[in-house]
Amino acid sequence: MEHDLGFDLAAALEREDLSREDLKALRHPPIEGVPATITDKQLSCFLDACDKNIDETRKVLKIYYEVRKNGPELFSNRDPHSAAIQQCLQNQDYFPLPPTPSGYSVVFHRLKNSRSSNYHFDEAIKTYFMTIDSCLYTQGPRPGIIFLFDMKNVGLMHLTRINMSSVRKFFQYLQDGLPAKLKAIHVMNVVSFFDKILYIIKPFIHAEILNVLYLHTSNANLDSFYDEWIPRSGLPSDLGGDLKSIDELHQDHLKEFERLRPYFLAEERQRNGDAGSLIDGSTDHMLKSLSID
Predict the structure, then answer these.
(1) What are the sequence ranges of the domains in the chain?
(2) Reduced to 3 states, what is the DSSP secondary structure of residue 90?
(3) What are the residue boundaries of the CRAL-TRIO domain, all occurrences included (predicted)?
(4) What is the side-by-side order of every strand in the sheet holding 145-150?
(5) What's the CATH code, domain 83-256?
(6) Which residue spans within 112-189 are E strands per DSSP?
(7) Which CATH class is domain 9-70?
(8) Which of 180, 184, 221, 290 is the most buried (most CB within 10 A)?
């Protein structure tokens, strides 16, 4: 199944202490709107994100598919070969970083240049969500995920590119439908006008998110960041780390996007094709699809 994730399920279940019985329990009773072809690997990410709470996992699964269905501008036409996504990949940097010593996944993003005319908000969010998906595809369920943003090339004119409807959907997905536990958002090289950005996004952010938002100025001492969150061994050289440069890591990730193209296309078909109630039986069995309401 091309829509399945690529990590080793047995290793992930053992690492995160997840139960196959719980995966089976998620399928009964049926969850409206969840594709019948959902796999155990996909389910395991949600179960882990919800600390093995079956009821909460079912709730997040429903929200996840509702948000994707109701946000086609952010979740449809996800072909890495498309002109819109290629434009984002040429003008912005995206890639996952290695898991931290605590086991957290890390997803990095920054603007490659400061030209606001090169920044297309909806497509940028779409490509960012694809990068998160690529991280889950490879790394699977983890104790948490960290979002790492670099604001080095962000200017005031970029604020004029923001789509408020998409901002709302962005935070709804991250807060209510993300199949991962959001542990922290770290913003590097924070700009002087960040208060204006916060004014725009604050109505859509839960207090829990604000509590894990960390801002780092360009001249900040990052020793505690390296010690508590992401060590130098897991960071690009541009941020004082031991890895390749941001540009080199982005170029490497372009190859990964190319490799995952069949997955992105198949995952979208899975969501937009026949979907509906999950049925009883083996979790490895191809389940009969029902119509979306």
Answers:
(1) 9-70, 83-256
(2) helix
(3) 82-247
(4) 92-97, 105-111, 145-150, 182-188, 213-215
(5) 3.40.525.10
(6) 145-150, 182-188
(7) mainly alpha
(8) 180
